[in-house]
Write a structure and sequence with these properties.
alpha+beta; 7-stranded mixed sheet; 4 helices
Length: 152
């Protein structure tokens, strides 16, 4: 039986040498204030972020940027601009992609027949739910397609 762990390890080997995107975490301190700091890097594969050692479920994705002086028609736009500025303040370069709020996927649980994040074992086939409203698809086909897109 093919395991999710083996499929993820194969994908990581195939991605070796390709550019990664930043992983960030929000921090707050008296001296430096609120900011989003770099805690690693990963390959962005749809609903997954892959590192050399972990599979992560994606959450918020943004680009580090100076919010400038703009008028906002929606409060959500103002908040998003502030989040982009927090990443810039935390050391990310202007325009750099930053992933925050991600969670570690328990591949052992998936391999044992359970579910973790967007991955699950469905009828003995490692599968991924690529959207909250979408159905399950085989992880092997999903990774093959996404890796080819990144390599192409």
């Amino acid at each position: 039986m093919t395991t999710a762990s083996a499929l993820i390890a194969d994908a990581v080997r195939a991605l070796s040498g390709l550019p990664q995107e930043g992983l960030g975490e929000e921090r707050d301190s008296r001296w430096r204030g609120r900011r989003i700091v770099r805690v690693g890097a990963a390959w962005h594969i749809g609903v997954l972020l892959l590192t050399e050692t972990h599979a992560l479920a994606t959450a918020e994705v943004l680009r580090a940027a100076d919010p400038g002086r703009r008028g906002y028609t929606a409060e959500s736009a103002r908040e998003r601009a502030e989040r982009r500025a927090l990443a810039l303040r935390g050391g990310f370069d202007e325009g750099e992609v930053v992933h925050i709020g991600w969670t570690v996927i328990d591949l052992d649980a998936v391999d044992a027949g359970g579910q973790s994040g967007p991955l699950a074992m469905i009828d003995s086939v490692p599968s991924v739910r690529w959207s909250s409203a979408g159905g399950w698809m085989p992880l092997e086909a999903y990774l093959r397609e996404r890796v080819e897109l990144l390599r192409g």
